[in-house]
């Protein structure tokens, strides 16, 4: 269905919810998945469950990324690794936190693209990259100065990479999810005064699930999206359309 049988796809952030769901759906679609993430224990459990390979590396280190991807033949990449940082206004933000958020979410994804694309160009069969951005790059959200800036940069990386890599038949797209109500996000978005106004402004009126984000990612990697490149696809229940 997707044309991913036997094709090797790297997924960063695979020890998290969206990354893990993406690994599961890619394996189900026949892909050979290489999973990376911060938690080696979570990666080991994911490997036992799905049969994926694991290759953890630090998204903040160019040397680590280069070494991890050296000699790894890839068809596809999902840049899902990221860090939320802090909830702060522009007046209160900790610039050290800002630097780290941008360093992981934008710089890290760019470095993975830099070294993964070398492999994809060398193989000469094309491929696809999907960057996991956020609705925070498309609309202003209170407290999201660092996170929104990092994802806005990632959207730009998506567009420029699509332009530069298109000549090699490598497509680059992004997805921009809304909130997934995990225990990690519930401390903020679960507050009625924070979450309720967003849900009221969202036509579908509910938060997303990890699988609802993973499915479009797999689609964008596959043959059905063979003429799609350079897009930032909101997966947000219509929130950014209003």
Could you give a quick summary of the protein structure above?
The chain is of the alpha/beta class and 242 residues long. It contains 8 helices and 7 strands.
| Proportion of residues in helical segments | 40-55%
Major sheet details: 7 strands, parallel
β-sheet strand percentage: 5-15%
Secondary structure class reads alpha/beta
Q: What's the Cα radius of gyration? A: 17 Å
What is the arithmetic mean of pLDDT?
97
SS elements, strand count: 7
Question: Main traits of this protein?
Answer:
alpha/beta, seven-stranded parallel beta sheet, 242 residues
Polypeptide structure, described:
The structure is a single chain. By secondary structure, this protein is of the alpha/beta class. It has one domain: Rossmann fold, CATH 3.40.50.720. It is 45% helix and 13% strand. It is built from eight helices and seven strands. The chain has helices spanning 17-28, 40-50, 62-69, 95-123, 145-165, 183-189, 192-201, 210-221, and strands spanning 8-11, 32-35, 53-54, 76-79, 127-132, 170-177, 232-235. It has a seven-stranded parallel beta sheet, sandwiched between helices. Helix 5 links the parallel strand 5 (127-132) and strand 6 (170-177). The chain is globular, with a radius of gyration of 17 Å. The model has no long low-confidence stretch (mean pLDDT 97).
